[in-house]
Amino acid sequence: MDANKLYNSQTRKVYTVLELTKQIKSLLTENYRDIWVCGEISNYKKASSGHIYFTLKDESSVIKAALFRGYQRMIRFDAGDGLKVIAHGNLDVFDKKGEYQLIVDFMEPEGVGDLQLAFEKLKQKLREEGLFDESRKKDIPVLPESIGVITSPTGAALHDILNITARRYRGVRIVIYPVLVQGEGAAEEIAGAVKTANIRGEVDVLIVGRGGGSIEDLWPFNEEIVAREIYASEIPVISAVGHEIDFTISDFVADLRAPTPSAAAELVVQNRKELVKLSVDLIKRLYTSVNRLVAQKGEKVSFYSIELMQGRLISILTQKNFILDDITKSLFNKMDAVLSEGRGRFEKTVGRLNALSPLRTISRGFAVVSKIPENKPVFSVHDVVTGDDIKTRLKDGVLLSKISGTEEKK
Predict the structure, then answer these.
(1) Where are the beta strands (DSSP E) in 58-116?
(2) Looking at the DSSP assignment, which residues form a beta bridge with residue 247?
(3) Sheet holding 173-178: strands in order across?
(4) What residue spans of 178-223 are helical by DSSP H?
(5) 204-to-38, 89, 135, 198 alpha-carbon distances in Å
(6) What is the pLDDT of residues 254-296, one digit of tens each?
(7) What is the pLDDT of residues 286-296, one digit of tens each?
(8) CATH tag, 13-110
(9) What is the residue extent of each domain of the chain?
(10) Is the CATH number 3.40.50.2300 carried by domain 119-264?
(11) pTM for this one?
(12) What is the C-alpha separation between 109 and 29, in angstroms, rounded?
């Protein structure tokens, strides 16, 4: 190189450090946008600001990277040192240090890309075939007597389900169908367990799932064999796979998706306190209905009793009594229908209501006494005086009497 030219102040261009840094930054940011970089994470640290800083490395080189807080919601796995990832972002230069780094806005574990493509492809295929249609989804029973759980017998998911069902209602029966939930052969075991549960017919609802994990861990629940077996199930199926942010093919084809196994248990098992409250409310409604009906029919019976005293409308009274019996029978039939959803849990209550029916009371030898002519019920010896006219309603008619005296119980 010509020394004179090299040292000629008229021809040489001298940059400040900042100027050169900005030009380098301009070149990098313009030419290296929207890029994917594959590497292993190291020096993974989360700053007090919430931003995450780390390096990506391979066998020969490293590059600094930053994952700002606003982009972290897009990352659906636990990143950390030693994990191989594919990161997406833009190159930028930190002016003060003259260092370039990758500003990451998304990343996934290495190899997930192919799995994600397979997931979307199968999802589209099954949607077009109608496996996700809401119209064919079955209702989840309100009070199942038995629940089938298809999961790993040693996993946390089963432990959570058993704890929650025991806490909410101990009377429910749990049938466990142990299967592998990840790795080779897991999909076949899960599908086989769904088929077995349907053949045996021993449960009212199925929970199919496992705890959280990577996309590879959850992959058996993305297999077509599992999706089709869930679709074919005559037993309603709740899919409970992974954490709330995880979605699998099983979630779309099942009759109900629960965000976690624990949530599935809460959805399918009613709380004991809620059931007790429901029972009390039903009993109150039944008492109110019976009392209202008895009062209405009592008014009609009183009217026809007066007609009977005058020697008329005997046949009408007989017909109305038959209608009253029919209505009473119909009422208790409707009561049975309402309570049948509780699998017989309220039958004892209905039996007690039947035993307390005013009509039953009269038929056992008791009577209803009222004053004439105001038809006012007599509850105490203090409600009448000597000489009052009274009528006594028995199961087969009315007695007309006059009070000759009273005697108070001592």
Answers:
(1) 62-67, 84-94, 99-109
(2) none
(3) 173-178, 146-151, 205-210, 237-241, 256-257
(4) 186-200, 215-218
(5) 48, 49, 20, 10
(6) 999 999 999 999 888 865 556 556 666 777 788 778 778 877 7
(7) 877 877 887 77
(8) 2.40.50.140
(9) 13-110, 119-264, 273-346
(10) yes
(11) 0.48
(12) 25
